[in-house]
Amino acid sequence: VDSLDEVLDFKILEITDLDIMEEWDDQDIVNYANTVAATIIRHNDENVENELLVLNDILLRNNTDRIPELEASAQIYKNLAEDTQKIPVPQIFAKQHLDLINSYQALQSDVSAMIEIVEDPLLSFVYIKHYPTDLEGLMLSLENIYLALEEYTDLFTIEDPAVLFVNFSPDYKRNY
After folding, report:
1. DSSP strands (E only) in 45-112
2. How far lies 125's CA from each of 38, 55, 112, in Å?
3. pLDDT tens digits, residue range 28-38?
4. Using the 8-state DSSP alphabet, how is residue 36 labeled?
5. Among 103, 112, 108, 83, which Cα is nearest to 145's?
6. 30-66 as b/e, with b when 16 or more CB fall inside 10 Å?
7. Residues 11/81, Cβ–Cβ less than 8 Å
8. CB contact at 8 A, 135 and 114
9. Helix and strand numbers, DSSP H then E, in the chain
10. Cα–Cα–Cα angle for 82, 128, 118, nearest 5°?
11. Is the pTM of this model over 0.70?
12. Are 171 and 45 in contact (CB under 8 A)?
């Protein structure tokens, strides 16, 4: 139980934890979408391998030298959650924004528990069980942001970072 408390160092955020814009215009929508997308792009690190592949290598090959990679991955999710929470959000996107932040936090918690696989395998396995669901939650929250922005597509250009959200269109075939 103590180990679980140490890993669960976040609280589920609520709407009141966000900087919600009560009034906004088209430019605020563009700024919001571009800032969220730019935050995702900024924190993307192509050198960090998928958490489950790293964990597999740790377990099958006892390659504990890869634990720092899990730490880096957990830090990415933490940074995404913290930076995304700071973004002012038009009220019409508040629910989607909140879901995105909470998805980041859930994945950060999962990966943080994976780091403990050698010291506390039970804790890690409890979180690993939730990892696929939390990852799907992240994908759905990004899809929901895309769907919320869809009616505003005429506000964006191909150069806008918000074009990233097209990857999460339900019409776009993807394999996770």
Report:
1. 89-90
2. 33, 11, 12
3. 999 999 999 99
4. H
5. 103
6. bbbbbbbbbbbeebeeeeeeebeebbebbeeeeeeeb
7. no
8. no
9. 6, 2
10. 95
11. yes
12. no
Q: Which two tokens stand for residue 122?
A: 């039970």
Helix, coil or strand: residue 30? helix
Residue 116 CA to residue 70 CA, distance in Å, equals 10
Query: CB of 91 within 8 A of CB of 21?
Result: yes
Burial (CB count within 10 angstroms: exposed 0-12, middle 13-18, buried 19+), residue 175: exposed
Q: How far is CA 27 from CA 36, 132, 163, in A?
A: 14, 36, 16
Furthest C-alpha separation in the chain: 55
- Predicted pLDDT of residue 120: 78
Contact 108, 43 (CB under 8 A): no
**pLDDT single digits (tens) 51-93:** 999 999 998 898 899 999 999 999 999 999 999 999 999 999 9
- The beta-carbon contacts of 117-122 under 8 Å, at least 24 apart in sequence, are 117/55, 117/58, 117/59, 118/58, 118/64, 118/67, 120/3
Helix or strand run (H / E) with residue 152: none
